[in-house]
Design goal:
The chain has 7 helices and 6 strands. It is an alpha/beta fold and about 190 residues long.
Length: about 190
């Protein structure tokens, strides 16, 4: 499976990760139960657009309900995302294979693409992610971009930690980040100085 990893990442980056904003017409959403609470998946006919939980999921459903319809049987991308998330949470999936079209700035999209390269069960620091983007002084900007990631878990911003090993900067909160890392076999603990 590890040899397949780089191939899947290359496919996502070059084919499934939109460089332009996808049309948001025809959006559908699906609420999926998970060990971290209900997740709201949003997709159009071409790609997964967002994965939200907690307050942000409630706000999405309230704000966009008139333009978006909940579905459980129609959108193959939503159904595939649901199945893959169930497999992830049960420990059976390490790599997601879905077309993704997050909306963001060019810098945010570059940061999110870099997140897709972090293997399951591994972490890097915000500074390392900035270095990988060839902008070593941009650790805070990387943290800001990761915080705006609209497809958390699948674009794994939870795999980025503070330089000291602290679990910082996760939109879902530190406990959720810890839970996701634990699912991946990582026992988070701060580094000793």
């Amino acid at each position: 499976m590890e040899n397949f990893y780089s191939h899947v990442i290359a496919e996502k980056i070059h084919k499934g990760f939109s460089e332009e904003n996808e049309s948001l017409s025809g959006e559908q959403f699906l609420i999926v139960e998970s060990p971290i609470g209900p997740l709201t998946l949003v997709a159009n006919d071409n790609a997964l657009l967002s994965l939200d939980w907690g307050d942000s999921a409630t706000k999405y459903r309230t704000r966009f309900y008139s333009n978006t319809k909940e579905t459980s049987h129609e959108n193959p991308i939503l159904l595939a995302a649901k199945k893959q998330l169930e497999e992830y949470f049960s420990g059976q999936r390490k790599i997601f294979d879905l077309p993704l079209a997050p909306t963001g700035t060019d810098f945010q999209k570059r940061a999110w693409k870099e997140l897709l390269k972090i293997p399951y069960g591994k972490t890097i620091t915000y500074g390392e992610q900035a270095r990988r983007l060839k902008q070593p002084q941009a650790a805070r900007a990387v943290g800001g971009a990761n915080g705006k990631n609209p497809i958390g878990i699948i674009i794994p911003c939870h795999r980025v930690i503070g330089a000291s090993g602290d679990l910082t900067g996760f939109a879902g909160g530190v406990e959720m980040k810890k839970t996701l890392l634990t699912i991946e076999g990582i026992t988070p603990s701060p580094r000793k100085s």
